[in-house]
Protein: IlvD/Edd family dehydratase
Organism: Streptomyces xiangluensis
Amino acid sequence: MPPELRSAQWYAGTDRNAYIHRAWMRRGLPRDAFSGRPHIAIANTASDLTPCNAHLGEVAKSVRDGVHESGGIPLELPVVSLGETQMRPTAMLWRNMAAMAAEEMFRANPIDGVVLLGGCDKTIPALLMAAASVGLPAVVVPGGPMLTGTFRGRPLGCGTDVWRLSEEVRAGTLSQEDFTRSESSMIRSRGHCNTMGTASTMAVVAEALGMTLPGLAGTPAPDSRLLEAAHETGQLAVELVAEQRTPADVMTAASFHNAIVALAATGGSTNAVVHLLAIAGRLGVPLSLDDFDRIGSHVPLLVDLLPAGTHLMDDFHRAGGLLAVLREVRDLLDPTATTVTGRPLVDFLDDAESWDREVIRPRETPLQPDAGIAVLRGNLAPSGAIIKPAAASPGLLQHRGRAVVFDNIEDFHARVDDPDLPVDADSVLVLRGCGPKGYPGMPEVSNMPLPRKLLERGVRDMVRICDGRMSGTAYGTVVLHVAPEAAADGPLALVRDGDWITLDVPARTLTLEVDDSELALRTPNKTTLDGFANPGRGWERLYVDHVTQADTGADLDFLTGSSGSAVSRESH
Ligand code: FES
């Protein structure tokens, strides 16, 4: 076996160790499996408890065929899977654990490259973080969105329409019975959420980073072209090993630039901010929160998809997908960014047609001229907070109102519908205790449901501020990812009911109108402090002790950076 293959460190030679490594792996592998053929792991997040990824076994089979065909040895490697809708308290609590576990498995095993199969929100970010820290040649196959379901003849955007329908019930405009009836129509097929939520966003972002076959992101899960692309990806993985093209070669500063452009032009999820910061942190690429505003905020919004627009992911794919979008903003891309194919991303744009101008708008007539994510600063968010203007009400982007403060999500649920809650349409709802440390895990609760008494008066949006995240399928004038969070001694812990707060998105400021001298005298009250998590043991303890704040990606401090693929000690 040529020495350049990493797996040869396990399999080459005639000593007892090599004998053991080979003998236990034979089990039907071809005779020449250990003689110079690259061993390709297929990191599979398929799980019955991650329903969005449950079909990845079939995708893995197509990857296997491609690897075999190109002379490699495919080896399926189940990795930690995170089902967004099923896990409590929040799947984000384990993104770093999934990344750490995958990283260690990639490094510990005799593999030369890896194909990453993800879909549901946290799975692609975790796999990319792992691959970045190990540095083995890697390529992503996104599992794809589901087909669009309908209820009473109307398409359903999963996630987004759950929020919409549940608000209708609370407003008294939809019966509980009809709400329940819609449940069986929400999920039409295999695949992940069909809106431009976090899963779709991270597939698009993976492609913009150069980590998928160009043109693949957004291919619906039941579409036969997904299996065709999986097959090709298996072939490509063998080539990646031969070329020793690693994630660090592909995911450069130029690629992150393009990912931010793609995020803005597609109206992608705010969750991509923490995930991109974490992935960049693993690679040592100097990406900051402000880069999202600097690069993305003047990119036009071209994709009319829920939650910001009207269409759904199968429309996006039919209309031409990401490449058709990027072709419209080609001048904003960094042309030096490459892809797993070894060719620059911009090479794939020449024949990227847009087939539906309602779904993918021309550059000249965007849905919004300036999209992206705005980064806010001020005495309420010294390290930054973000807002997605495309998902907000234009009339609330500059707003002054009095705070109505909730110490944690339980406090919020207990009081939000209290008829005596001193709140009106101009109030600013403040929810704390939902950051990485405080919850723990930074859940998607920032898009707080509005007080019932205001819903009944027809109010559909208010300014909301939180140190947590917001579902990529949600919408509203929501300031999120406030850093430092309340549980990390951020000023959010000091806000009191009735304080004036000013949000000025054009000026990029978030201001608590309380003098510094008075703020210095304030301390968090006992209820606030009691709302913060203080786990005694296990992963939650480790997480709370080491998680960083949202503005640096909410990774664990000891996981940033890379350790490479070298294993220093023998096994026996
Ligand atoms: Fe899995 Fe939405 S719940 S992608």
Q: What stands out?
A: The chain has three domains: 38-148+188-348, 149-186, 374-534.
